[in-house]
Amino acid sequence: MIVAAYLYWPVIYLLVYRPFILPRLSSWDHVPLTLVAVVAGGYVALLLAAGRRRTHGAIALHALGIALTVEALSLLFAWLQTPGFRKIFASGFDPWEVLVTAVHAIVVLGCLEAGRALTRVAKTGGVPASRASSRRNAA
Predict the structure, then answer these.
(1) How far apart are CA 64 and CA 82, in angstroms?
(2) Less CB within 10 Å around the terminal CB: N or C of the chain?
(3) What phi-psi label fits residue 82: left (phi over 0), alpha (psi between -120 and 50 degrees) or beta?
(4) CA atoms within 13 A on the CB side of 17
(5) What is the pLDDT of residues 24-80, one digit of tens each?
(6) DSSP label at 23?
(7) Integer Cα distance of 37 and 22 in angstroms
(8) Rounded distance, CA 71 to CA 60, Å?
């Protein structure tokens, strides 16, 4: 599942952006919100699923890895002059891009950790582990 998280944005670019969005950009004022919500919701759902059965250390490494992979992908697309990415190099180096990558890493970290937490709650039957053990000790 974690491999799918690394490949999500390249696949979305190739299977959604290029064939469906790019040809319509000249006639659209904006990309429809429902399409953005479906793509972003799919990403969050994938990250929640990918966070299952991972340690905190692995989650932190994957969060950084996924964010850096997306950044490297956008730089590669800009260097190749692909549609939608041509303007990235036109403005020169943007130091705010580091902040965007950091925020992306934090969002991925949060989603992966939430997936891990949801799995742990599901295993205990909806009761957090600390409460379950205290109830057993009280009985």
Answers:
(1) 25
(2) C
(3) beta
(4) 14
(5) 988 888 889 999 999 999 999 999 999 999 999 999 999 999 999 999 998 888 888
(6) G
(7) 17
(8) 17
Cα(7)–Cα(106) distance, integer angstroms: 18
Domain ranges of the chain: 2-126
In the numeric block, the tokens 């009761």 are attached to 127
Q: Please provide the DSSP assignment of the chain as one string.
A: -HHHHHHHHHHHIIIIIIIIIGGGTTT-SS--HHHHHHHHHHHHHHHHHHTTT--HHHHHHHHHHHHHHHHHHHHHHHHTT-TT-TTTTTT---THHHHHHHHHHHHHHHHHHHHHHHHHHHHTTTS-HHHHHHHHHH-
pLDDT tens digits along 74-106: 888 888 888 777 776 666 667 788 899 999 999
Which amino acid is present at 71?
A: E
Kindly state the tokens that stand for 47. 């990250």
